[in-house]
Specification:
Elements (H helix, E strand, L loop, with lengths): L3 E7 L2 E7 L9 H16 L5 E6 L10 H5 L3 H16 L4 E5 L2 E3 L1 H8 L2 E4 L4 E3 L13 H9 L1 H8 L5 E2 H7 L4 E2 L4 H17 L2 H14 L5 H16 L2 H16 L2
Length: 254
Amino acid sequence: MTDSIVSEHAGGVALLTVDAPGSRNALTLALSSQLADAVAAAERDESVHAVVVTGTPPAFCAGADLSALGAADEAGLRAIYEGFLSVARCTLPTIAAVGGAAVGAGLNLALAADVRLAGPRAKFVARFLDLGLHPGGGMTWMTQRLAGPQQAAAMTLFGQPLDAEAAARAGLALRVVDGGHDDLLAAARELAAPAVAAPREALLATKRSLRATASLAAHADAVDVEIEPQLASLASPEFAERLAAMRARIRSGP
């Protein structure tokens, strides 16, 4: 079978699977381009409220294809990055369902998501220096922001991998999901359910605000960022409908 990004839109979720089991889901230039296209298609589909990224078992993603990496100049590197950077830029909520090893660029793909769920066989590995290679794609920035400088140094400078439980303790994974790959995907869909139920425009605006307020130092500045989209949501028909339904439930009693 041809390696590809398998994209399934169902139940408000776009499930994007890196399907290249012969290479443990290593990202070629073609796969990175397909992943970027799949993310863009999810953003255009108004029925989609969340994106789940995973890899065909047993790996999550073994990194960048070594042939492409060895021949890459700056433009080639940026082309390899484009797959996981599309996840990082995604306007929709994103979840990485990490069921196996996430290595190098595969680690970047996992870190690019808003939230990571780890299966019991998940492993988070930098492995850049093992190849004599400087980290790329923003890995040092993402790891330090998520896990702190000491854990980032241990992973990057000293080659320390994190298994699923260690990743959860370090803050790289939200939690560990016991069971197989189907259980992991079911947990991802369950996590996505409140986003699926939310009004899409309010959901997109909330993610924009999370990004905007992440670098702010003052509470008052965050209030200013949030007030305009909150006023817009107050004027929306979705809010009016949900408020009326809540009032009806309150009037009807237990």
